Amino acid sequence: MFQSVLEQEVAAAEARLRAAISGLDPDDIPAGEATRLFDGLDRIVRTASAARTLLARRVDDSLEWKRRGYRSAAELIAARSGTSLGAARAEIETSNALRRLPTTRAKLLDGTISPQQGALIAGAAAANPAAEGSLLETARTANLTELRDDTLRAKAAADPDPDVTHARIQSERRGRCHTDGEGARHLQLRGPIDLASTIETELDRLTDEIFRERARAGACEPREAYVYDAAVEMARRSARADDAPAQTGKQPRPEQLALLRLDVSALWRGYTKGDELCEIAGLGPIPVAIARRVLGDAALKLLITKGIDVGSVTSLTRGPTQAMRYALLWTSPTCCVEGCTRTIVEHDHRTGCEYKDTRHTRLDELDRLCTHHHDLHTRHSWALVPGRGRRRMVPPDHPDHPAHPPP
Questions:
Q1: 256 Cα distance to chain centroid
Q2: Domain range summary for the chain, segments of one domain joined by +
Q3: Tens-digit pLDDT profile for the chain (407 aa)?
Q4: Which of 31, 84, 375, 397 lies at 20 to 30 Å from 350 by C-alpha?
Q5: Strand partners, 366
Q6: Neighbours of 398 (CB within 10 A)
Q7: DSSP element (H, E) containing 13
Q8: In angstroms, rounded to a whole number, what is the distance separating the alpha carbons of residues 322 and 338?
Q9: Chain-centroid distance, C-alpha 397
Q10: What is the CA radius of gyration of the chain?
Q11: What is the rounded distance in angstroms from the CA atom of residue 200 to the CA atom of residue 234?
């Protein structure tokens, strides 16, 4: 395969860097040298990140992402770099903006500003080119928060119609949830400032209320902890208000609704052992004691490992039975395609097991696919490689496609 001079030089630089840090043990580095070495590596990271950001728009132009089965260039970048989809989209937007900002581009490449600073400046200067110089000067002395405030002011100053901008932010409002590597749940909201202030005002009021209550009891925790407690209290009060069974005649709603996978032996014992599990599907592990407490007053669909073998059930209808749906939700809370995290999915019959041919539905012949990958399968003959659970989806001419006999 042909390689340009630049590609060869990048590969050689990567090899030299790998060789230089191979077997690195931080405890062997003299303390006086550590800071200088850290600064040198930081400059390398800045330069490499700048070059990668500049190339992001060309990855989009190449359409290689489409040939590899991704829905967008951002999805390919996120999968290859291990970043979030939102971060990958932002990188492509920054790359496009930098095309018209040669000064910012040069300062990114020489490491004068960090990739985070460059992204903020590029976003603002794309809307207000006259602010580029002052923002670069701000980046030289200010921290990232101060620079972000200045970029927001620069965008607002150049906004020809703030009402339209507000309407766009309103239409793009969103809430996202994810579980981090430690098992903590994160909630993120994005929307117009006026609506966010409604939430924040009530959060502040409840936070102060909880703080005073805990202070009287002698407790002292960071305010951030009480903000979280205030958010939980908001949800509980809303649930109690919605229930009001005596006034509305409705039955009280359960406090929790989730899919719990729990080994029955762990339930009786009180803790898990070995490869036993106690998890809420799509969220993450929870202690058995918490599961017991939740089960006391919650409506959960409970799958226990010593229960019915759902895999032995066969349905003569096209769709899966309810038991199959619960089992599929547990084994694949997201799309089955490796690297895809979409949760809006369809139940798809595997290649060679289509309902029109078999006239039945079995758990071991089903996969959960998002709309994009379901379309690749049904319209373009892509297929998941043989196996179970999350795995690669390949085009019809790929040697691992299930339509091709094994060697």
A1: 23
A2: 13-159, 179-243, 257-304, 311-394
A3: 678 898 899 899 989 999 998 888 999 999 889 999 998 998 888 889 999 999 999 999 999 998 888 989 999 998 888 888 888 999 999 999 999 999 999 999 888 888 899 999 999 999 899 999 999 999 988 888 889 888 988 888 888 887 788 888 889 898 988 888 888 889 999 988 778 878 888 898 899 899 889 888 888 888 899 999 999 999 888 878 766 655 555 544 443 345 666 777 777 788 888 777 777 665 567 787 777 776 654 444 555 555 444 444 555 566 666 667 766 776 677 788 887 877 778 887 776 677 667 677 777 678 888 889 989 988 899 999 988 778 899 999 999 998 887 66
A4: 84
A5: 349
A6: 15
A7: helix 5-21
A8: 25
A9: 31
A10: 27
A11: 11
What are the phi and psi torsion angles at 366 (to 5°)? -115, 150
- CB 50 within 8 Å of CB 67: no
- Cα–Cα dist 105/313, whole Å: 60
Question: Cβ–Cβ contacts within 10 Å for residue 342, how many?
Answer: 16
10-to-46, 279, 358 alpha-carbon distances in Å: 15, 44, 53
Q: What's phi and psi for 179, nearest 5 deg?
A: -105, 130
- Eight-class DSSP state of 337: B
Gap between the Cα atoms of 382 and 386, Å rounded: 12
Residue 79, both tokens = 């999968």
Between CA 165 and CA 40 the distance in angstroms is: 41
Please state whether 185 falls in left (phi above 0), alpha (psi between -120 and 50) or beta: beta
**What are the C-alpha distances in Å from 395 to residues 79, 80, 357, 376?**
18, 19, 22, 8
CA distance 105 to 118: 8
In three-state form (DSSP H/G/I as H, E/B as E, the rest C), the secondary structure along 151-197 is: HHHHHHHHCCCHHHHHHHHHHCCEEEEEECCCCCEEEEEECCHHHHH
Contact between 98 and 108 under an 8 Å Cβ cutoff? The reply is yes
Q: Looking at residue 131, what DSSP letter applies? A: G
* The overall pTM is greater than 0.70: no
Could you tell me which of 156, 93, 140, 86 has the C-alpha nearest to residue 119?
Answer: 93
Residue listed under structure tokens 């599929």? 328
- In this structure, is the dihedral angle defined by the CA atoms of residues 62, 64, 69 and 71, taken in order, positive or negative? negative
